[in-house]
Structure formats: C-alpha cells, structure tokens
Amino acid sequence: MAKVLLHTCCGPCATVPVPALRKEGFDVWGFFYNPNIHPFTEYERRLQSMQEYARQQGLKIIGEATYDPVEYFQHITFREPRRCRLCYQLRLQKTAQLARSGKFDYFSTSLLVSPFQKHELIKEAGEMAAEQYGVAFLYRDYRADYRETIIRSKAAGLYRQQYCGCLYSEKERYAPSKKKKENPQS
Q1: Domain segments of the chain as ranges
Q2: What is the pLDDT of residues 66-112, one digit of tens each?
Q3: Do 106 and 1 form a contact (C-beta atoms < 8 A)?
C-alpha cells in the first residue's frame, strides 16, 4: 500500500482528504507543520483540533509540536506581497523533506480543501518541492467538498478557525473594510 504524508493545517480541513485518500487505497499519515499560525493560542487550538481528529480517525500524526513562528517571519520579511507563495513553499518543502526521509511514496496538503487558498500557488509549491526532494506531490482539488468539511468538523466537535492563520490574515479579518470606511452608515 502506497504511503502518503498529508500536510495538515488543521483538523477541519483534514476531514475531507483523509477519508478520500484512504478510499483511494493510500496509507495516510498526517504532518502538522504550520509556523505561520499566529498567535500562540490560535496555534494551540489548531494543533489540539488536529490531534482530536487524528484520535477519532486513527490517523498517525507526525508533528512539529513546538511553536516557532520565527522561521516563517524570516522567510517572508521584506517579501510580504509574496507571503502566501513563500508560506506554501516553506510548509510543502518541509513536508516533502520529511516524506523523503520517512520513505513515503507521496505527499500532499489539506490546504487543497479551502476555496480561500491559492490553489495554483499550492500546486506550484508542491511540484517544486517534489522535484527538490524526489517524492511525488499528490495534487487533488477538494474545493467542491469544502462545505462537507464544515458538516464533518461540527459533527466531530472540532474547532473551526476564521482566518488562514498568519498575522496578515488575522489583521485582514479584523481590520475595517474599505467599503465600511467609505460608507460608515452601512
């Protein structure tokens, strides 16, 4: 049975690719590596959510249990307009590297579930990492099943986040929109 290392950003996003890949006949392992998540309390909630989902599904998890956003900030500083591309590259390179050392046949990511993520950049980052580390990137477009992640994560009692995880997306979430600034009556 072919082994796939699935980079997991959170429990809810894993609820679609884990069973789908298992149905395809893969031995799926999870890898929680997300130095982009900010603040620490958000990181902890997402890690706990992933661990709970893994427990419920009998999913083996390889994890970076330490919170260290320094690598992420060093990777994107002064290149913020390209932060998403760089973030995908950072996480998928680490996943591919681990997949190679763990003798996995493939690697993939639960980021492919979200319609809010930039799929072409994810695919590009995955393919680059595959070439660099010699492990195939398993691209699947799960966006059509995004609503299913909401249903499944609620049924499983998993924490669902409201932003991508990085400081910039958190700021965008809470910052007043331009429309509200232009028309304070709305």
Answers
A1: 3-161
A2: 788 888 778 777 767 777 898 899 999 999 999 999 999 999 999 99
A3: no
Task: Name which of 136, 150, 141, 97 is nearest 122 in CA terms.
Answer: 141
Q: Within 10 A of 85 (CB to CB), how many other CB atoms are there? A: 17
Task: Look up the pTM and report it.
Answer: 0.88
Q: Return the bridge partners of 3, or none.
A: 27
The Cβ of residue 71 has, within 10 Å, a number of other Cβ atoms equal to 12
118-133 as b/e: b if 16+ CB within 10 A? ebebbbbbbebbbeeb
In 3-state terms, what secondary structure has residue 147?
helix
Q: Which of 171, 174, 176, 173 shows the shortest CA–CA distance to 184? A: 176
3.40.50.620, 1.10.8.10, 3.40.50.2300, 3.30.200.100: CATH of 3-161: 3.40.50.620
Peptide bond into 39 cis (omega under 30): yes
Using one digit for the tens of pLDDT, what is the confidence trace for 149-177? Answer: 999 999 999 988 775 666 556 656 667 76
Give the integer Cα–Cα distance in Å for 78 and 37.
18
Question: Which tokens in the block code for residue 154?
Answer: 């609620």
Q: Please, what's the largest Cα pairwise distance for the chain?
A: 60
Tokens coding 15: 């609820």
Hey, what are 88's tokens? 């995908």
